[in-house]
């Protein structure tokens, strides 16, 4: 038995050695083949890899399109309310859509924002406007170096309907294309990531349109008003009003957006303009913010603010020592709404 067991052990040992030799021979042959392939076909293999990378890039869609549609409302009903107040109901709609193109060194961003809101208070059956916006911007850039683009920008904004200085609703103080603002700028855009961009344009044209005879004649929104006077010869002269105004200067636009928390997003845009030809120290400011609080897929709350200062726009001052007078002042708007929203 011992001899037989010893013979069986030697046989198994011999088979194991042959198996190890076979495995080592196979690995050695595979290494030789791999080395031969690398030497002979390296250039062809690298070319195929580059082609695959090119195909992968080309198959990525260069356009990205999306936006937000929202309808917000608020209703207040009071009965025998000791603290006082008025019943009210308000409705507001918001549409913000974008189309972005990215391919190679080219970047083209387009954005359209529309907003309109009305409110009804007390026993009045009149709906009063409390929000009104039309804004379109388009920005094209070509990459110069990492994060830097040579960029051209155009921007246009106006409103849908007549605006009034309530409670006076018989005389309008603004309307569609009165005012209308156009801007064309050439400069450089710094975009280190998808959240932040800073556009600096030393060459910018800003245009103000007042396509209404009554408002233009009064010199609203900085256009030249109609002036009548008697010259040195006694001749009566009327200098006709203008419906537009041109400015040339420098423009800066800074944009930032971030996800504050899981269901809270924040975005802001700061625009600055200085007119080289007239009071360059008086910088025009337009600063907007939008905070979105998402409840679920279709319900959300939004808080938007807008601050404007333009020394060419004369407004009826409502505070301070100059209350009740007309002149340049800070304009501020805040809109808070809760309602339906859909993001696509």
Structure description:
By secondary structure, the chain is α+β, with helices and mostly antiparallel strands. The chain has one domain: Beta Barrel (Outer membrane phospholipase (ompla), Chain C), CATH 2.40.230. About 20% of the residues lie in helices and about 55% in strands. A hairpin with a 7-residue loop joins strand 6 and strand 7. The termini are far apart.
Question: Which features characterize this protein?
Answer:
344 residues; alpha+beta; Outer membrane phospholipase (ompla), Chain C; 12-stranded antiparallel β-barrel; two-stranded antiparallel sheet; 18 strands; disordered N terminus
Report the biggest beta sheet as strand number plus sense, adding barrel if it closes: 12 strands, antiparallel, barrel
Query: What value does the Rg take, in angstroms?
Result: 34 Å
The gross shape turns out to be: flat
Beta fraction: over 45%
Provide the CATH architecture: Beta Barrel
The order of strands across the largest sheet is 1-2-3-4-5-8-9-12-13-14-15-18
Topology, element by element:
Layout: H1 2-59, E1 63-76, E2 88-103, E3 106-121, E4 128-145, E5 148-158, E6 163-164, E7 172-174, E8 180-190, E9 196-209, H2 213-217, E10 227-230, E11 236-239, E12 244-261, E13 264-275, E14 284-294, E15 299-309, E16 315-316, E17 326-327, E18 331-343
Antiparallel strand pairs: 1-2, 1-18, 2-3, 3-4, 4-5, 5-8, 6-7, 8-9, 9-12, 10-11, 12-13, 13-14, 14-15, 15-18, 16-17
């Amino acid at each position: 038995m011992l001899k037989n067991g010893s013979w069986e052990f030697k046989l198994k040992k011999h088979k194991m050695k042959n198996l190890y030799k076979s495995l080592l021979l196979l690995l050695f042959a595979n290494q030789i083949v791999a080395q031969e392939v690398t030497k002979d076909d390296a250039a062809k293999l690298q070319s195929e890899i580059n082609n695959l990378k090119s195909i992968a890039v080309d198959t990525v869609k260069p356009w990205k399109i999306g936006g937000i549609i929202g309808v917000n409302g608020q209703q207040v009903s009071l009965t025998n309310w000791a603290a006082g107040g008025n019943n009210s109901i308000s409705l507001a709609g918001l549409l913000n859509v974008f189309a972005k193109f990215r391919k190679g060194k080219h970047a083209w961003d387009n954005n359209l924002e529309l907003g309109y809101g009305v409110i009804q208070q007390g026993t009045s059956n009149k709906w009063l406007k409390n929000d009104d916006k039309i804004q379109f911007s388009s920005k094209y850039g070509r990459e110069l170096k990492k994060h830097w683009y040579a960029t051209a920008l155009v921007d246009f904004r106006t409103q849908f309907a007549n605006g009034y200085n309530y409670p006076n609703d018989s005389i309008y103080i603004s309307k569609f294309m009165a005012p209308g603002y156009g801007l064309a700028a050439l400069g450089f855009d710094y975009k280190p990531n998808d959240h932040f961009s800073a556009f600096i344009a030393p060459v910018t044209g800003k245009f103000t349109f007042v396509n209404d005879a009554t408002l233009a004649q009064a010199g609203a929104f900085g256009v030249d008003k109609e002036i009548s006077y008697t010259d040195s010869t006694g001749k009566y002269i009327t200098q006709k009003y203008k419906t537009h105004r041109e400015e040339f200067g420098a423009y800066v636009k800074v944009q930032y957006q971030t996800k504050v928390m899981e269901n809270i997003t924040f975005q802001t845009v700061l625009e600055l303009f200085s007119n080289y030809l007239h009071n360059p120290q008086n910088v025009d400011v337009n600063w907007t913010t939008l905070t979105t609080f998402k409840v679920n897929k279709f319900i959300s709350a939004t808080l938007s603010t807008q601050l404007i200062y333009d020394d060419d726009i004369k407004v009826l001052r409502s505070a301070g020592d100059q209350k009740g007078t007309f002149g340049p002042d800070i304009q501020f708007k805040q809109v808070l709404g809760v309602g339906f929203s859909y993001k696509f």
